[in-house]
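Forwarding the complex inputs:
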Amino acid sequence: MTLAPTNEAQAADFIRGARVARQTLTFEGGGTRTGFGRPMQTDGTLSTRLMTGITLHEPAELVISARAGTPVAELEAALDAKGQMLPFEPMDHRAIYGGLGEPTVGGIVACAASGPRRIQAGAARDLLLGVRLVNGEGEVVKSGGRVMKNVTGLDLVKLNCGAHGTLALITEATFKVLPKVERTVTLVIEGLDDQQAMRAMTAALGSPFSVSGAAHLPAGVGAGSARTLLRLEHFRDSIDYRAGELTKLLMPFGRAGRIEESGSRDLWRCVRDVTFFAEPYDDAIWRVSVAPTHGPAVVAALRQAQLPFRYFFDWGGGLVWLACAMHDDAGAQAIRAAVGGDGHATLIRGSEDLRARVDVFQPLDPALMKITSAIKASFDPDRILNPGRMYAGV
Amino acid sequence: MDIHPGRLAFVARTAKRYNGRSPHRFWRASLSAIAFPTPDPAILARRDAIVAGLARLVPPECLVTKEDERRAFETDALTAYRRVPLAVVLPRNTAEVAAVLAFCHGEGVKVIPRGAGTSLSGGAIPQEDAVVIGVSKMNRILNVDYANRTALVEAGVTNLSISDAVMPDGFFYAPDPSSQLACTIAGNIGMNSGGAHCLKYGVTTNNILGVKMVLIDGTVVDIGGQALDPAGLDLLGLIVGSEGQLGIVTEATVRILRLAEGARPVLFGFDSSEAAGECVAAIIGAGIVPVAMEFMDKPAIEICEAFAKAGYPLDVEAMLIVEVEGSDVEMEIQLARIVEIAKRYGVKVVKESRSAMETALIWKGRKSAFGATGRVADYICMDGTVPTGQLPYVLKRTGEIVAGYDLRVANVFHAGDGNMHPLILYNVNDPHEQAKAEAAGNDILRLCVDAGGCLTGEHGVGIEKRDLMRHQFSDVDLAQQMRVRAVFDRQWLLNPAKVFPLDGREAA
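Prediction (whole assembly, two chains):
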């Protein structure tokens, strides 16, 4: 059974109906991220594909709102026409899942799909000003709004960003936007090992030059030799100055080359979408989030564990993408041991069988797990919305 | 490098205002438009036993029990309201906070978390049957990690002390509320505090990566850390801005940022508030996001100039302070663009800062606005946020509303993000004027909501705006929030009289 409401009131009706009938629901937008999370068996699917359209765009106020089913591409085109952009550079998961659909506004909110610019412009949750929701009782709940500063009541906006639809159906989202990048340049240093690269990225991110992307691609990822990438995006007039100063700062690590404009954009799209690991499709993909300087240590620890894997770093070392074979636990135990206490690992791609066997999301401390379950119950007492998507029983 | 040295000088002078003690010259308002719950007689009757229980958990220097000493904690910066608490505990560490909370939970005693007591919305005002837990003794910076651009601090550190500690190395902590010399990170987390520079750098929630928090039953949880995103649900996002209703934060991992190469403000004087408001919208509309964009109307300019001698133009109706950052060349380019736009809106006075001294003076004037206003009159400070396109209309209506109550208003606020701070001037010794000022404030906040904005941008709901919440939220919205609140505090022991209207809580 697939329900495709055309508006929020109808979506609320459907959810109330499902609750009365004791039926569970899977939420779906463009269907490009169905492989994300624990496998679920539900009685039906609720698709937001007919709940579309930009409901507010005030360029002079840097704000845009759209219904959940609106394609991200439509949102970005509307922004582009006014010289604006979504600052958090949302990841498009189609490269790694091989899907054909269109990523939607609801999807990037539910998955908190922040891209490389997170280090400078903030994460999805930082740019999300407001949401409209339908909870598991079929009630329409709004939180936040359309203004930049708002501390009125509990922040259910951030709580639902990255909740993978386990608390409520997102029906509409409002984002803070920024002026579009006027020019982009990426400085590239070749041949650094992980530790050297981490130090180069640390130096750049600790500089006053507003670095908006810091990634390290070891040899074999996208090119034969290792490349450390540092992106500058700013006013047209200041890029040359900043690039010059940053190049000087990075001299101890080697001579930095430059990739301009479309070359830079293409490269960062590959970093954002993890295109390097798209194939082979039967490799598992892990996303590891740690303190930036800890990234290389995670990789070093995995080498000790004799686990064959590929990797690269984004977020100055704080985001480690790993690809490894899908047999056994696909490295789950070794990876989480390497990550340690202050960080987390998420299985982003894996067969249904694998995602049923291993913890897709980082297991939580018991006190936090208890809070998570209780928050789920406060939104969705009968556990009918994306049940078990993140954690068993939630 | 001329980075905001003005911030430091000013706050030192006005810190007294925020030291959390009662300014005794104020008349003790008996009239209360804002209701407090009736104290629980059973708790009051057990006061001695409760104090004795607390005395077993912390050393004597951490426990305040004498009435005249407790009175120092009876209010915050919303001084018209005050209640002397049952007792005050000032724990030295997380373990003591946990022990005290577990005890209070077991005894069914309400708890009021307190930072420095600088809340403008009454967020730290106690009640007679509650124990205040103040974090002021937990004021150490535990670790600064430049490589990861974070600092681990105890929650009682002051906002400014973090920037002070890292500024010699070229870093700063971005949120900069006016009370930053006195206010604590704990309070900033409670209220999701902002400041003049959050147009570019975001508010508290965008600059915190992790907290150690004690739950009401004494359980200690670590949420987040140095990683840039959360494991599981974004509980940190929920906690920041929760006004001390979910737990007591004892440590925080904050982001520290590298200072820009330089910063330079420019002053614009306009013949009307509307023109200034339109200029703000035009600057942002042109794709320029300055670091700060502050607005002052004529009454505010006069008050601040008299106090700070900042060189503000006195022959204009409204003034903007627009600050840009970067290298000298970059600042020149941005300022040229901004000045060009201002000219299109009939700017009358343009004054660029030419030295670190001038920059410091310009900011001193702005940052002393609340303190300087307090010297000429009593005031209540509103905090509604509106879409920036609505600024001219809301400013006009604000003036009309306040005039309708036969009172005066000074407007000084963060224009770039639409966060308004009308200061309604009145005489606190005149109960009739206080009631009128509160009524005018409520009308203005309803106006902000009706214009597409919200009740509070950075001060929090506290008790002040609690009874207006239904103007912004439906009962369903509030019930959902209260159910989430109850996950952390089923018995409503933590800061219970705040944020949510007192009636209708059972429905949640």
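Chain A has a mean pLDDT of 96.
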